[in-house]
Amino acid sequence: MEKDTVIQKIRKLLKLQYGAEKVGNAGEAYQAAKMVRKLLLEYNLSLKDVQGDEDGETMRVTESDPFSYADQYGLTWKRNLMVVICENNLCKLVTTNQLKRMRIVGTEANVIICKEFYQYLLQVFRRLSMERLNEAQNEYLGTGMFMTEPKKKDFIRSYLEGVSRGLQENYDSQRPTSEETGLVLSHSRLIESYLHQKNIKKGRARHVKTEVRADGYDAGYDDGRNVNLNRQITNSGQKVNTYIS
Question: Residue 186: which domain range?
Answer without folding.
Answer: 3-226
